[in-house]
Specification:
The complex is a heterodimer.
Chain A: H1 2-28, E1 31-33, E2 43-44, H2 47-54, H3 59-90, H4 96-102, H5 105-108, H6 111-124, H7 131-157, H8 160-167, H9 172-201, H10 204-210, H11 217-227, H12 230-262
Antiparallel strand pairs in A: 1-2
Chain B: H1 3-34, H2 49-56, H3 58-91, H4 98-108, H5 111-122, H6 127-134, H7 154-189, H8 194-223, H9 226-231, H10 239-247, H11 255-287
Classes of the chains: A mainly alpha, B mainly alpha.
């Protein structure tokens, strides 16, 4: 029992280290003055909220472009992940082990290296500084996770149900949608959630592929951190992380509901 | 395979091939340009001189050393802390619910925001400095150690550990809880203490997942840009930060230098992955190949 107590202490300290900065940043969002050495701010203000909503950066526009970008990456990444998994796990194409290894390649090539290496090609394809270019680059970063997740769930689900459906006369698409799709739905959602978060968080790749013209929350946040305006940096961070968490928890709740009805 | 199946599977794998081709194209482009082949600017000679000249510059070597240090130290610490957190989750059976969501939180926080967190906590006027003052440990904020922006890169290392230790814990959780519930508990039923059963059964069998997580964060922190850019020293710069500055120089004839720096990062990352693969093969042999990470 002593070891369980120690492990509970480990978790308590972990939770404290994780949550303390979150709390401090939440306080900073409404801070007017927080002089040394106070443990709490001297005055509070809603200046930050006003500035964020009506300041030089239009928050709504940036939020929309970040969400659209991440949603596109989540959908395309998951569809490609699913297609790849069907090819390797159901159709068992030749060289499927190579596919599994090749899928991990973007994890071995750092995002900075990839972004600088691909920029010339984006220019040649005339998609530099466009949403399409940014989506393409984010897709590369997110795909290892999408492909691995989709391969795992597709392999676990197998194709026996689907075969039964087609024996009973359903077409290939029908039998996939009716027999396999419900089984792999939790995987689809977690792949989408992972890809969404990855795209939403990208800074360097967005900067390079978007040329500063495609503005996301990650991009507008950095100058505030650099300029030392901690209150504004904090409120942008709160919106940034908060909006990501909302999407994450919606998908997470959907996964849980599916798992429950499944069992 | 029937003909129709062959066509369908070819169509299914095509988008993946295109994306992979994109990655290979980026690698090829880096290799070609770093070897000095840029026909647009009348550079035709294939040469290693850009690599050699780059590696002869002391500031490049220092920058490379800083990045390797940050990456090795932060990943080792993240792996150790992550393993401990994972073990604690498994032992206390908190493998779901509020505690797990708390542990998953740093995985969802972007690196740019992690940098802000670190500033708010560890700068000389940050929360820890204020707590130290309130506790009478320092009498002025200048006495608080300069953790951020220093040549030691300690702020960057701490920031990476904050983000990556929970990643490794979550990444290893499925495997470790599986092993612990089966073989770990069997060992305990046969009389092993929880500590012994963890050290001799659960930990070794969970190593594949921990090692894979370690490799991912090792390569990521080696090539990462945001944290060293926001929390690092002016000199030496982290290698990716330095590479990007060289990359931004408007004279395209200098491009082979920044591409050689990218090539160096690429080669070192591949070497890390290779060493990992060799170690894993040995480990798997030792474990009898029963579990896969």
């Amino acid at each position: 029992m002593k070891d369980r107590k120690a492990m509970n202490a480990v978790l308590l300290i972990t939770a404290l280290i994780i949550l303390l900065p979150v709390i401090v940043i939440l306080i900073w969002t409404v801070t007017a003055r927080w002089p040394w050495p106070g443990l709490l701010p001297e005055n509070y203000t809603l200046r930050t909220v006003k500035e964020m909503l009506f300041g030089s950066n239009s928050l709504i526009e940036i939020l929309i472009s970040s969400v659209v970008l991440a949603t596109l990456v989540a959908i395309i990444g998951t569809v490609i992940g699913l297609m790849t998994a069907r090819a390797t796990e159901i159709y068992r194409i030749r060289g499927r082990h190579v596919v599994g290894t090749a899928a991990l390649l973007p994890l071995i090539v750092p995002g900075t290296v990839f972004a600088m290496g691909i920029q010339v090609l984006l220019i040649r394809m005339h998609i530099n500084d466009t949403i399409a270019g940014v989506v393409l680059v984010h897709l590369v970063v997110a795909l290892p996770y999408c492909v691995t997740i989709m391969m795992d769930v597709t392999a676990a689900a197998g194709d026996s149900l689907e075969e039964q459906a087609s024996v009973l006369g359903a077409g290939p698409l029908r039998s996939f949608i009716d027999a396999s799709l419900p089984q792999i739905m939790p995987g689809i959602l977690s792949s989408a959630s992972m890809a969404y978060i990855i795209s939403y968080s990208q800074y360097f790749t967005t900067l390079l592929a978007g040329g500063g013209k495609i503005k996301t929350l990650a991009l507008v946040l950095v100058p505030y951190i650099q300029s030392g305006d901690r209150a504004l940096a904090s409120i942008y961070s709160t919106v940034f992380v908060g909006s990501a968490l909302i999407v994450f928890f919606l998908l997470e709740a959907a996964i849980h509901r599916l798992m429950k009805t499944e069992s | 395979m029937r003909k129709r199946d062959r066509i369908v599977s070819a169509l299914l794998i095509t988008p993946f091939m295109l994306v992979t081709a994109l990655v290979l194209a980026a690698i090829l482009n880096i290799m070609v340009q770093s070897l000095g082949y840029m026909p647009v600017f009348d550079l035709y000679d294939i040469t290693l001189k850009y690599y050699i000249e780059t590696l002869r510059r002391p500031e490049v070597v220092q920058s490379l050393a800083v990045s390797l240090k940050v990456s090795a130290l932060s990943s080792a610490a993240a792996a150790a802390a992550g393993t401990l957190i994972c073990a604690a989750l498994v032992r206390t059976r908190k493998t779901r619910g509020a505690m797990l969501y708390t542990v998953r939180l740093p995985i969802l926080v972007p690196h740019t925001v992690v940098a802000l967190f670190t500033v708010a906590m560890l700068s000389q006027t940050g929360l820890f400095a204020r707590l130290a003052y309130a506790g009478g440990m320092i009498s002025d904020y200048t006495e608080f150690p300069a953790i951020l922006y220093g040549t030691g890169y300690f702020g960057v290392i701490i920031a990476y550990v904050w983000k990556e230790a929970p990643f490794i814990a979550y990444f290893s959780l499925a495997l470790m809880s599986g092993v612990s519930e089966t073989l770990g508990e069997a060992a305990e039923n046969l009389g092993a203490t929880p500590f012994k059963s963890f050290m001799h059964i659960t930990l070794p069998l969970s190593l594949p997942a921990i090692a894979k997580g370690f490799l991912i964060v090792l390569i990521f922190s080696f090539g990462g840009y945001e944290l060293p850019m926001l929390l690092g020293a002016t000199l030496p710069k982290a290698f990716p930060v330095y590479t990007y500055i060289e990359f931004l120089k408007p004279d395209f004839r200098l491009r082979p230098y920044s591409m050689a720096m990218n090539g160096i990062t690429l080669i070192l990352s591949l070497m890390m992955a290779l060493i990992y693969a060799v170690c894993m093969k040995r480990l798997m042999k030792k474990l009898g190949g029963g579990y896969e990470g």
